[in-house]
User: What shape does this take?
Amino acid sequence: MRTSAVFILLVFVFLACQIFSITSGDTTSAKPKSFSSYDSQVEPLLAKMTLEEKIGQMTQAEHGGMKDIKDVEYYFLGSVLSGGNSDPETGNSLSSWTEVYERYQSRALKTRLAIPLLYGIDALHGNNNVLGAVIFPHNIGLGCTRNPQLVEKVSKITAEEVRATGINWAFAPCVTVPQDDRWGRTYEGFGETPELARTLGEAAVRGLQGDDLMNPLSVLACAKHFAGDGGTIFGTGVSKGPNTSEHWPLDRGDVRLSEKELRELHLQGYVSAIKAGVGSIMPSYSSWNGVKCSGSKRLMTEILKGEMGFEGFLISDYNALDELPGDSKSQIAQSINAGMDMVMVPEKYREFYSNLKSLVNEGKVPMTRIDDAVKRILRVKFAMGLMDKKRSLMADRNLQKNFGSAEHRAVARESVRQSLVVLKNDKKLLPLSKKPARIHMGGKSADDLGNQCGGWTISWQGQSGKDITPGGTTILQAVQNAVSKGTKVTFSKDGSGANGADVGIVVVGETPYAEMFGDSTDLSLSKEDLAAITNMKKAGIPVLVILLSGRPMIINEALEQCDAFIAAWLPGTEGQGVADVIFGDFKPTGKLSFSWPRSMSQIPVNISDKSYNPLFKYGYGLTW
Ligand code: GLC
Assistant: This one.
């Protein structure tokens, strides 16, 4: 009798757990299949491969650096990328990107073993290289949403718009934990805490890769840059070039932390990315206690692959091996022996291929290391279904009807709304009425899609301009769309002509930049921006300031002059999301993902500081 009662109880508990996991809406319950489970398919193929074919799999060339398309076959290339400025030579369009991808993939399929290519692209906030793609808020804005489900949805759409070109690998998410706002890549991080990197990094991997990498809508994700890229010490940045002794302040600099501190602050995004099944990880250009991450056996093999159990493959950053000590061959030997599996050699792929072949023949890189690297790469290709001979590897053009669609833009607009942080709202100026007689708009960024999108948009550095990509909405256009027919919306970049208006809106902030070009020792608003705010204020009307920036800036003077202030970060193409909040259709919910400094002398300022007194604290954000 007792046995059957226990059995019934066990069945009840099991069923209850199943129901809970289904109804809890837990989108992260699906545990991805381990990459090592594909070894039974990988090993027979690996056994057939020549040394040349193996080294080819470890070689990634760039479209813009390709000497001859026949090199895909001659060097058995395992991957091609389009870096920041490596567009189709026939121009930038969905069809031209698709043609380039199919050109390379078709060549790869002509090789003896017909191992398909991975084609990689920096799809960081949408398929941001391609004209007409939906451009989402950069990670700094997504961090302020504190919404993993939304980040997963954004990443899922990004994957779909990448796949529309056939491309199958996104060098994202960046799970950096930026500690110094002067760093040019601050906006690529979700925030200054490991918590945001962990939760939102995991969500981004799940969105990009889906529950199953076999899904033709999934793309391979790449967590980056391992490890500590956002924790470098000011003044240790990379040299500005071979003919100068000048250095960038922070980018690719040195992290000086104990291993315990590094783990707690900078590795959490990788813990969760691995849990979510990330198939590739990109070691950082930067160093840890003087050792370049791209040459660190402790980091890449002992910690990441050994202890953390990462079973995918490591892809180097762009020519990152050039920054290791010694000549080319010793750089390659150091990095490969330390655990690098695939090397991003945009132009010098032929030299890399022959140098690595020599190193193996000279016994300086053991064949066991080559086999391990190729095994990892092939595991991922099998997991993605690329090796399935019945499967077409050309682009699915059915996906192209949703590229830049209204449905995708609606999700981007929702992410803009949830990313906005209201820092000031005196006299309850916000939400604004949709029916005033006149709204006067000012500021260099009010009608500038390029400044809305920031770096990594259409080009590597991005660019200012109203129409940098079709289908977007500037904040000026968004206000014009939102107000009543009887309301007049006027605009002057310098804020002049505001007299007589009911309210003024000034949109200011940064112009686009990427990587080291964004390193800055002065985060103050420009004189042009301050003048626009002053001109608006002179009209004696209430003033709302909207800041478009890749990081917190020094805004004390602007704060004093305005009645309301919103940090909008780099919202992307869907400026209508800003109007949704300022006119009250949606309440603001955004919370700061970075502490806001009072002055340049206070930077770096982070919630983890022992003495912590920022202008606005991490987590701050007003609502109504
Ligand atoms: C860049 C970046 C990296 C990017 C890669 C390919 O230098 O550091 O984030 O994925 O090169 O463009």
